[in-house]
Amino acid sequence: MKKIKGPAIFLAQFIGDKEPYNSLQGLCKWVSELGYKGIQLPAENLAVFDLDKAASSKDYCDEIAGIAKNFNLEITDIASHLTGQLVAVHPTYDTLFDGFAIDAVKGNPQLRQEWATNRMKNVAIASKHLNLKTAATFSGALCWPFLYPWPQRPSGLVEEAFGELAKRWQPILDQFEENGVDLCYEIHPGEDLHDGSTFEMFLEKVNNHKRCNMLFDPSHYVLQCLNYLDHIDIYHERIKMFHVKDAEFNPSGKQGVYGGFQPWINRAGRFRSLGDGQVDFKSIFSKLSGYDFDGWAVLEWECCIKSPEQGAAEGAPFIEKHIIDVTEKAFDDFASAGTDKDTNKKILGIDN
Question: How far is 128 from 132, CA to CA, in rounded Å?
């Protein structure tokens, strides 16, 4: 078995206008002092990382890696959730998702998609330049507005959507293959890939592409009432990344999974800081360790109550406590009879 690496932290939620949150160097110093050993880089914030420059310049990547190393940190992977989202946008969300794009492509869905596709390919190249093996993203969504089957979905609608989704992602996945990097889709509400069934539908459409993998984040499964431990048993061969994020689901007589259009603080399902929610992290770390997961345990902080500073400070020791020093021997080795093949045959009554 392999030991999970960590603790690491996704920087996106902590970037701000003031020090130390307004530069990669300041963030690295801050998280290193908190006890983190790795950082996950967001692809969409120039204050800490220039994706396009990273794809065109190995020297720039060496510089970025050097900043992290100066604070005893490793770069775990590049996270390109907002870019991946723009690979597939249903027209319902055009205006909202334009906010994730550069001004030159806003208001033009085709140009926006082409821009996002090229940037996703740059994630593959930049990951190789940084000697990374995984990258995170969202799948985007073409049929999410039709999640609930009312009005009745026309025959073939879902199949058409997933066929188009696969068509858009196939060349991106091929680019990741060329660069030796696994692309890990975060299974997430709002995306066409939001549970195991939808991941399987997509995987079939991309011909079981070896670079099509998963980012496991149990918080999104708690909010869907999905069994996240069974999920590991089913998909452990495809789980290549792990976001350590907590959540709680407390349904009432007023609301359940859908949340009643309420703000996060008033929803039945909401994200919490590590240890404040309902996720069984002991069982998750045990299962992942048992399946030889050797990636990083990365804190993604989201909480509707606790401050990000407190969440980050508590996150490193929480993850450290849950990482298992996997055993290299069986617990009952002390009682071994030390037999050989001939003795085994004798015990079983097998003639030589």
Answer: 6
Strands 38-42 and 182-186: unpaired
Name the residue range of residue 82's domain: 5-348
pLDDT tens for each residue of 225-266: 999 999 999 999 999 999 999 999 999 999 999 999 999 999
Rg (CA), the chain: 22
How many residues in total does the chain contain? 352
Three-state DSSP at 42 gives strand
Amino acid at 166: A
Assess contact for 172 and 117: CB atoms under 8 A: yes
Phi, psi of 87 (to 5 degrees): -70, -30
**CATH value at residue 164:** 3.20.20.150
**pLDDT exceeds 60 at position 335:** no
CB-based contact 249:225 (threshold 8 Å): yes
Among 6, 13, 4, 5, which residue's Cα sits nearest to residue 301? 13
Q: Taking the CA atoms of 111, 114, 115 and 116 in sequence, report the sign of the dihedral they define.
A: positive
For residues 48 and 42, the answer to whether their CB atoms sit within 8 Å is yes
pLDDT digits (tens, 9 = 90+) for 29-51: 999 999 999 999 999 999 999 99
Counted domains in the chain: 1
CA 148 to chain centre: 25
Q: What does the alpha-carbon distance between residue 175 and residue 212 come to, in Å, rounded to a whole number? A: 12
8 A C-beta contact, residue 177 and residue 133: no
Dihedral class, residue 87 (left if φ above 0, else alpha if ψ from -120 to 50, else beta): alpha
Beta bridge partners of 243: 298
Decide: pTM greater than 0.90.
yes
φ, ψ of residue 317 to 5 degrees: the values are -65, -30
Residues 213 and 237 sit within 8 Å (Cβ to Cβ): no
Q: For residues 309 and 312, what is the distance between their CA atoms, to the nearest angstrom?
A: 5
**Structure confidence at residue 330 (pLDDT):** 65
Residues 6+ apart with CB under 8 A from 210: 177
